[in-house]
């Protein structure tokens, strides 16, 4: 293990990325950075991150919100539950830690919305705790080095990866550097299409020796893409349009403001609730109206391929609220609803 430790340390010392967000690090800034860059390319998220940190420079400011401002500052990053969770977490930290971001792994896990990955990153960087964050890059590197036989993302894999990485944390490198070095190794060399010719540890890699590099990490069978028809009904009063907040049981965009409507789901999915309660008769009527109409736009959310049809109706649904177009543009954060708003001028009222 010592040859690997030495090589990893020398490589990272020379190649460490000098990201701007790594300057003047604090536990709070590390937390926000990790949330912003999850499932997002750094180049795409860095400007949004800079704006957010300027608007909410600390836990206290974030806890004050309001939530609508937090969501607005997060716009364009997708997965708005992350922004809501940040807001709730800031409130918890303000109430339970006097607004000071905790750095101990065990304390971080108590914060609503903070899971293992984020807690491990913060604790390793700011508290030198030897805990593997275990993201996709870590999984590629460690599964190939040691030919770990478990499916990635399973508890068995996480345990095996943590055991495999433990000697790396026992060396001279700070724990945060170990996590970030493994991550950069996976980002730049041990990629999905590995660049073994550049690897400083190719002779130590079990998968390379057996000629099975691309077989790792072991993945579960890819889930089949599912087609969904989403029918949105548009009701207008003067210059205002009705929207409702999607409930917790709605499969997409929970808590987001949406035009009332419902999903025509594939048989593979169990029946889910609509953004609001809608009678069976109303659903059937909308289905008949929508059947001959072309699709207004298409959208993808994870493995779901969504076709959206907008229908003008003369009566709204119970509840919800009516907002002007400018208010809708400001408060409807999802890219799907932004697409729907751009299609309103095509409807005949």
Give the structural class: alpha+beta
- The tally of beta strands, per DSSP, is 8
Distance between the termini: 71 Å
Q: Assign the CATH architecture of the largest domain.
A: Orthogonal Bundle
Q: Over all CA atoms, what is the radius of gyration?
A: 24 Å
CATH superfamily of the largest domain: Hypothetical protein, domain 2
Report the principal-axis shape: globular
Oligomer: single chain
CATH class of the largest domain: Mainly Alpha
How many domains? 2
Low-confidence stretches: none
Strand content: 5-15%
The main sheet comes to: 4 strands, mixed
Compute the average pLDDT: 89
Kindly describe this structure:
The model has no long low-confidence stretch (mean pLDDT 89). The chain folds into two domains: 2-215, Endonuclease III, domain 1, CATH 1.10.340.30; 226-346, Nucleoside Triphosphate Pyrophosphohydrolase (Alpha-Beta Complex), CATH 3.90.79. The chain is α+β, with helices and mostly antiparallel strands and 349 residues long. It is globular, with a radius of gyration of 24 Å. Strand 2 (236-237) and strand 3 (240-245) form a beta hairpin. The relative contact order is 0.10. Helices cover 45% and strands 12% of the residues. The chain contains 15 helices and eight strands. It comes from Turneriella parva (strain ATCC BAA-1111 / DSM 21527 / NCTC 11395 / H) (Leptospira parva). This is A/G-specific DNA-adenine glycosylase. Adenine glycosylase active on G-A mispairs. MutY also corrects error-prone DNA synthesis past GO lesions which are due to the oxidatively damaged form of guanine: 7,8-dihydro-8-oxoguanine (8-oxo-dGTP).
């Amino acid at each position: 293990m010592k040859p690997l430790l030495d090589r990893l340390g020398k490589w990272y010392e020379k190649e460490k990325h000098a990201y701007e967000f790594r300057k003047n690090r604090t536990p709070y800034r590390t937390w926000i950075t990790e949330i912003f860059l999850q499932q997002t390319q750094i180049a795409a998220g860095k400007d949004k991150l800079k704006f957010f940190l300027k608007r909410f420079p600390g836990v206290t400011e974030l806890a004050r919100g309001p939530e609508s401002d937090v969501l607005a500052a997060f716009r364009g990053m997708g997965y708005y539950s992350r922004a809501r969770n940040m807001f709730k977490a800031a409130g918890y930290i303000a109430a339970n830690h006097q607004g000071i971001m905790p750095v101990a792994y065990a304390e971080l896990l108590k914060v609503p919305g903070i899971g293992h990955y984020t807690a491990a990153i913060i604790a390793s960087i700011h508290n030198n705790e030897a805990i593997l964050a275990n993201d996709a890059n870590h999984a590629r590197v460690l599964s190939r080095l040691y030919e770990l036989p478990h499916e990635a993302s399973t508890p068995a894999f996480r345990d095996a990866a943590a055991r495999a990485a433990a000697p790396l944390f026992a060396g001279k490198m700070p724990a945060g550097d170990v996590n970030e070095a493994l991550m950069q190794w996976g980002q730049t060399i041990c990629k999905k299409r590995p660049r073994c010719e550049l690897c400083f540890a190719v002779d130590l890699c079990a998968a390379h020796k057996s000629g099975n590099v691309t077989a790792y990490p072991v993945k579960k069978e890819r889930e089949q893409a599912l087609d969904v028809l989403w029918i949105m009904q548009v009701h207008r009063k003067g210059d205002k349009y009705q929207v409702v907040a999607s409930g917790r049981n709605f499969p997409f965009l929970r808590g987001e403001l949406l035009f009332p409507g419902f999903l025509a789901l594939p048989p593979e999915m169990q029946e889910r609730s609509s953004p609001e309660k809608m009678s069976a008769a109303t659903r059937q009527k909308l289905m008949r109206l929508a059947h001959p109409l072309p699709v207004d736009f298409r959208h993808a959310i994870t493995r779901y391929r969504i076709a959206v049809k907008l229908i003008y109706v003369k009566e709204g649904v119970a509840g919800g609220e009516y907002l002007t177009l400018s208010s809708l543009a400001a408060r409807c954060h999802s890219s799907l609803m932004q697409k729907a708003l751009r299609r309103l001028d095509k409807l005949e009222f």
